[in-house]
Amino acid sequence: MQRLSSALFLLGLGLLIAAIFRGMEFGTAAPIVGQAINSAAAEQVGAANFVTAVVLGYRGFDTLLELTILFTAATAGGLVLGKRSPTAKRDPDAGFILQAGADLLFPLLVIVGLYIILHGHLTPGGGFQGGVILASAFFIPILARPGTRMSHAAVSTIEGLAGASFIFIGLLAMFGGEAFLTPLMDRGELGALLSAGSLPLLYLAVGLKVGSELAGLLTHLSESEAVD
């Protein structure tokens, strides 16, 4: 039965890929949307990184849905993994070198993660990339010390506040008569840290939400009881 299911899945996947490539023309479509964004993004949004202008400005609603998908996946993972029994045997702590290395990496990863998040409107990076680095900063010490517990209540609080902040900033634009997630505040000087209006705040919310969700999921993985 398992082989039949795998064969049907591979057959369906192959038919899907064939249908996509059969009706897709490569190298003929004019990049109309890209040209329009490249010519207008700096003036309309004020972000030196045009990818950020697209992710948070022109298609910010899609980004919100991506965060929803990540939240759903993390929640489902936590429900499936469950909790480790209090009487279950835990792995011993790693050696001195690994523990010291984890302690040294923690502040470095936090700084790098926040830097990437806060400079996402200027350089490549942003909330998703920086959030992953933040999650690893809090998870690596747990790998070195398996007995260490992360506060799930704190992680859930940060995750909820970050998601609510993203939606609240989007609703503020609607209260002002604009479309949802329209950039707010002054655009500032192109290339300056304080520029692109509310986009850096949105990326900060994205980074905190992604980081807290991934950190929570990884912690659930480390706390789940192995099945023999």
Structural class: mainly alpha
Radius of gyration: 22 Å
Shape: globular
Strand-residue fraction? under 5%
Intertermini distance = 23 Å
Largest sheet: none
Please give the share of residues in helix: 55-70%
Element-by-element helix/strand order: HHHHHHHH
Number of strands: 0
Low-confidence stretches: none
User: If helices are DSSP runs of H or I spanning 4 or more residues, what is the number of helices?
Assistant: 8
**Tally of individual domains:** 1
Return the average pLDDT rounded to an integer.
Answer: 85
Structural write-up:
Helices cover 68% and strands 0% of the residues. The protein has 228 residues and is an all-alpha fold. α4 runs parallel beside α8 and α5 (96-118) packs antiparallel against α6 (127-144). The longest helix has 25 residues, at 199-223. The radius of gyration is 22 Å and the shape is globular.
Question: Short description, anyone?
Answer:
Helix content is 68%, strand content 0%. It has 228 residues and is mainly α.
Considering the chains and any ligands shown, give keywords for the structure.
228 residues; mainly alpha; 8 helices; 68% helix; globular
What topology emerges from the helices and strands here?
Elements: H1 2-22, H2 32-44, H3 50-58, H4 60-81, H5 96-118, H6 127-144, H7 152-175, H8 199-223
